[in-house]
C-alpha cells in the first residue's frame, strides 16, 4: 500500500473541469498537433488531488513543472 492510500477516505471524490480535448487525451487519444493536451489534463487532476488529500510523491513525472 502506498503512503497516500492511507489518507484517502472510501467515498471521497474530486472534481476537475477539463476541456473535451483534455478528457479525450486521458482516454488515450493522441493529439499530434498538440502534445500538451494530455499533460495539461494530468496537471489539473494532480493539482485537484493534492488540494483534497495529503498526497506527496517522491518521483517527479513528465507533466510536472
Oligomer: single chain
- The share of residues in extended strands comes to under 5%
Alpha-carbon distance between the two ends: 27 Å
Mean pLDDT: 79
Unreliable runs: none
Helix content: 25-40%
- Integer-rounded radius of gyration: 13 Å
* Pattern of helices and strands: HH
Instruction: Tell me the number of strands.
Output: 0
SS content category = mainly alpha
Shape: elongated
Question: How is the biggest beta sheet arranged?
Answer: none
The number of helices is: 2
Write structural notes for this entry.
This protein has helices spanning 20-26, 36-52. With 65 residues, it is mainly alpha-helical. It has a domain at 22-49. The mean pLDDT is 79.
What are its keywords?
65 residues; mainly alpha
Question: How is this fold's topology laid out?
Answer:
Layout: H1 20-26, H2 36-52
Brief rundown of the structure:
The protein has 65 residues and is an all-alpha fold.
Amino acid at each position: 500500500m502506498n503512503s497516500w492510500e492511507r489518507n484517502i477516505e472510501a467515498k471521497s471524490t474530486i472534481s476537475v473541469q477539463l476541456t473535451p480535448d483534455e478528457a479525450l487525451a486521458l482516454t488515450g487519444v493522441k493529439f499530434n498537433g498538440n502534445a500538451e493536451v494530455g499533460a495539461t489534463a494530468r496537471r489539473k487532476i494532480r493539482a485537484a488531488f493534492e488540494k483534497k488529500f495529503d498526497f506527496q510523491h517522491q518521483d517527479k513525472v513528465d507533466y510536472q513543472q
